[in-house]
Amino acid sequence: MDTITVMTPTRIAACLLALLAVGGGGCASIPADDHEAGEDVSSMISAERVTVHRDGDDLLTAGLGLDGLRVMTPPAFADAAQPTPAELRRRAIWSSWRGIADLAPGGGYGDVYGSTAAVPGREYSALATLDGARQPHRVVVQVPDAFDAGKRCVVVTAASGSRGVYGAIAVASAWGLPKGCAVAHTDKAAGSDYFDLDAGLGVAADGTVQAEAEAFQPALDATAADGVKGVAVKHAHSGDNPEADWGRHVRQAAEYALHALEAARPDLAPFTFDNTRVIAVGISNGGGAVLRAAELEGDWLDAVVAGEPNIDVDGGRSLYDYTTEAALLMPCALLDPALAPLPQPPLAAQVGAVGLVRCASLKQAGLVDGDDAAAQAVDAHRRLNASGWTDEALRAGALSAGFDLWRSVAVTYASAYGRYAPGEHPCGFGFAALDANFAPRPATADERTAWWSDASGIPPGAGVVITETPVALPDPAFAGLQCLRTLWTGDTADARRVQAGVAAIRASAPREGLPVVVVHGLHDGLIPVAFSSQPYVAMARAAGRDVRYWQVDHAQHFDAFLGFPDYAARYLPLLPYVYTALDRVEAHLDGQGTLPADAVITTTPRGAGNALTAGHLALPD
Predict the structure, then answer these.
(1) In this model, does residue 18 exceed pLDDT 90?
(2) Burial classification of residue 47, based on how many CB atoms lie within 10 Å of its CB (0-12 exposed, 13-18 middle, 19 or more buried)
(3) Distance between CA atoms of 243 and 501, rounded to whole angstroms?
(4) How many CA atoms lie within 13 A of 610 on its CB side?
(5) What is the pLDDT of residue 212?
(6) Helix, strand, coil proportions of the chain in percent (round to 5)?
(7) At 347, is the pLDDT very low, low, confident or very high (cuts 50, 70, 90)?
(8) Which residues contact 38 (CB under 8 A, 6 or more apart)?
(9) Which of 603, 614, 600, 599 has the alpha carbon at shortest distance from 571?
(10) 284 assigned to active site
(11) CB under 8 Å to 616, separation ≥6 — which residues?
């Protein structure tokens, strides 16, 4: 991977033309002060870089291909304490693919649907800052060498979950790059730019660890800074409530894409929203982000496809509400035999052990009824059903309960919504590495350098865990979970602070005339359709918007976990439906087809030991 330091759009264009020209003299031959009148990169953009990805490297898989992505261990660093930007990028792409797509043999990726074929090209990366924001968000624009000059298209996307900037590569790049589109990514001001409070080190624009933490520098009260230790996480500690600006992050990424295209293809300039097609796509939090982008004024966006979106609207439930409810009640409810058999391995035993203790804690706190664990489980199950959880969502939710994901989400989002700095969490939570006695300790250099490439943006993971005070046996998580729930149900100053942050993320209808397709699995156990997609579609249609809605039977939230045999037997991937929806939208924009009609897609689970086929998916024509 070759790197060019970016100076100005004109210098980028001239530099690259020189590099690509036969006998060209390269960047050094271009005067540094070669500016065009009226040129404006925008004061919101900084730390720009251009990297070239060819000859054993590429935009889509960093040269790993499907076989390399399937390897269980991440690509190694030559020097674990000082990985190069190229090594960090390759490992981040490996991690992002494996966190989103089902790449297991027999799962159908690269055969029944999807592509991992090498796509050579260039990446334009920068830190972009919204007006009023304290922290930047990362933007990356991938421009394939085979950019389709006749189509002039940009696919803009946002990372799912709290992932880093490549977090939607399996969603947007896998569809857009092979079609000759540029693909613009944003991490939505979350991501894996962790800051080591013990060492005073953060992440530079190229992913390396530096004292100058360009991507995220937490604000600390000067009187308390010396006593705050551990790890600051950007999503939790940015001070910005980034979710309130998801749509603006997406739009700014699209604006940066036009700038990057003018640099990459000056022969086709200018690139504007009037002459360049822009399609937004994302899943999970990324799906919520593109729906928020759909609200923004102007004709900058041509279509939106949102998969399993985390979206908060009137008539639905906020993620924080149902996450804190699930964190408390679900471990107990999953003991009800009416929900058996739960997906396994590896989670049923874990859930059962925690569930017995949790039922007793809930009973003691007056949160469930019943004289024994069996009766308490039935009551917890009943309460979740009454608040909108389907049994299909509860069974799939066993994964989130088993991996303690509900607590992870609640801890991080409470901090983000309340805009708390490190050390200020109202429920006593923090993040740190642990020693052999489970006590917080400083991170090692090797751990710290891998955070940017390996972390999901929401601990635990990559050697960073949740720390909590106080804890008490036999249910050490219970007091913290009760505190997190009270931030939603209570009326304290901290509760009102968190609730105000949640109120700031409420979505509204998309712009009139904008094609929008929502795709969601009916078995989603992390973002149930009843709390998100269904009320969003109802709200949008009540406002007179033409939103199309695909509901996919036997699809849950995490394609990546279909590598577990029991999940593969029960559930189908959602990505092929997102790709197909994009195909249909593209055909509509080309005047060669209609937007997809609403559908409840009847699918057939592949069963134990069977490879996925197109017949199992029953993709709409």
Answers:
(1) no
(2) middle
(3) 9
(4) 14
(5) 86
(6) 40, 15, 45
(7) low
(8) none
(9) 603
(10) yes
(11) 572, 603, 604, 605, 606
Question: Residue 77: which region, alpha, beta or left (left: phi > 0; alpha: psi -120 to 50)?
Answer: beta
Closest CA to 407 of 470, 309, 473, 483: 483
Helix (H, G, I), strand (E, B) or coil at 297: coil
Cβ atoms within 10 A of the Cβ of 579, count? 21
Distance of CA 245 to the CA centre of its chain: 14
The average confidence (pLDDT) of the chain is: 92
Three-class secondary structure of residue 298 per DSSP: coil
Choosing from 284, 361, 408, 456, which is the catalytic residue?
Answer: 284
8 Å CB contact between 614 and 573 = no
CA of 160: how far to CAs of 173, 228, 506, 558, in Å?
14, 29, 18, 11
The angle formed by the CA atoms of residues 140, 419 and 398, to the nearest 5 degrees, is: 75
pLDDT per residue over 171-224, tens digit each? Answer: 999 999 999 999 999 999 999 999 999 999 999 999 999 998 999 999 776 555
Residue 302 Cα distances to 292, 299, 621, angstroms: 14, 7, 22
* Cα–chain center distance at 96: 9
Q: Under a CB-based contact definition with an 8 Å cutoff, are residues 324 and 484 in contact?
A: yes
Instruction: Report whether 330 contacts 381 (CB < 8 A).
Output: no
Question: Phi and psi of 550, rounded to 5°?
Answer: -105, 125
Integer Cα distance of 359 and 314 in angstroms: 32
Q: Where do runs of H (alpha helix) occur along 302-434?
A: 319-333, 348-364, 373-386, 391-402, 405-418
Tell me the C-alpha to C-alpha distance, in Å, between residue 317 and each of 311, 322, 502.
9, 7, 11
CB 126 within 8 A of CB 587: no
Non-local CB neighbours of 239 within 8 Å, separated by 6+ positions: 134, 135, 218, 219, 419, 421
Pairwise CA distance, residues 200 & 195, whole Å: 7
pLDDT interval class at 39 (50, 70, 90): very low
- Give the residue from 151, 146, 168 showing the smallest Cα distance to 250: 168
pLDDT at 43 over 80: no
Give the separation between CA 307 and CA 559, rounded to whole angstroms. 12
Span 226-237, pLDDT tens digits: 689 999 999 999
pLDDT of residue 36: 32
Taken as a whole, the chain contains a residue count of: 621
Report the share of the chain in percent with pLDDT over 70: 91
C-alpha–C-alpha distance, residues 375 and 368, integer Å: 9
- Residue position matching structure tokens 């203790």: 357
Please tell me the predicted confidence (pLDDT) of residue 416: 98
**């593109």: which residue's tokens?**
290
Q: Using an 8 Å Cβ cutoff, are 449 and 202 in contact? A: no
Distances, alpha carbon 408 to alpha carbons 335, 344, 502, 613, in Å? 22, 21, 17, 35
- Of all helices (H) and strands (E), which one includes residue 327? helix 319-333
- Residue 507 DSSP label: -
Beta pairing partners, 549: 518
Inter-residue contact 555 to 523 (CB < 8 Å):
yes
Q: Are 257 and 235 within 8 A, CB to CB? A: no
